[in-house]
Amino acid sequence: xxxxxxxxxxxxxxxxxxxxxxxxxxxxxxxxxxxxxxxxxxxxxxxxxxxxxxxxxxxxxxxxxxxxxxxxxxxxxxxxxxxxxxxxxxxxxxxxxxxxxxxxxxxxxxxxxxxxxxxxxxxxxxxxxxxxxxxxxxxxxxxxxxxxxxxxxxxxxxxxxxxxxxxxxxxxxxxxxxxxxxxxxxxxxxxxxxxxxxxxxxxxxxxxxxxxxxxxxxxxxxxxxxxxxxxxxxxxxxxxxxxxxxxxxxxxxxxxxxxxxxxxxxx
Length: 267
Known about the structure:
The chain is of the alpha/beta class and about 270 residues long. It has two domains: about 10-190 and about 235-260, Rossmann fold (3-Layer(aba) Sandwich); about 195-230. The chain has helices at about 25-35, 70-80, 105-115, 120-135, 155-175, 195-210, 210-220, 235-245; strands spanning about 15-20, 40-45, 60, 85-90, 140-145, 180-190, 255-260. It has a seven-stranded parallel β-sheet with strand order 3-2-1-4-5-6-7, with helices on both faces. Helix 5 (about 155-175) links the parallel strand 5 and strand 6.
């Protein structure tokens, strides 16, 4: 059974209003679909619509959340159309920085990574948290990355640093708003086999003259190995997010959950 086939209680999030960013593909899209299957009214935010239509009833908002103006517009539209919010899942993230280590990372490249991986969460939280605090109820989940603990200095140093900032911010925020009825947690995925990741593996296999599985295995090895023998699936990350957003996790806040198949070595 794959994660997308796991039974979901259609009443679990009935009456709950959720906003998910980075929603058009990968982990974000999987979270939108999982929360909708649980009965939530979901607003999905991304620059472009997904290739496969969202579930019926999903509210799609097109916005560039790397800008203050884009975040402000989403806050206003969310409060207007949903009249408040119960669950906020900040998924948006990624990296466009060049490889080559610290020397190739200009101020502009650092700023771009922060604008993509930190500022959208900060701005949306700032705009939407007050409505949660007024009701003394709400859940915020930030999607970070295991690279905050295992940075790849050659290729993703700025990305890793910006995700580390997001995790630290999340912890501090949880301490501030926990007494006000709002839970804040972080989910840090490892290598997740999204459609974009599959496309990357396909391109690498063509370049290297190897088959898909060999290239996939080589990529996992380069990341330090995955003890379970495969990457996570977007639907599996979505299941974890759904748990943390639910009343089953009512006593969990200020925590970071890693979902990486055992990649990060811990004692």
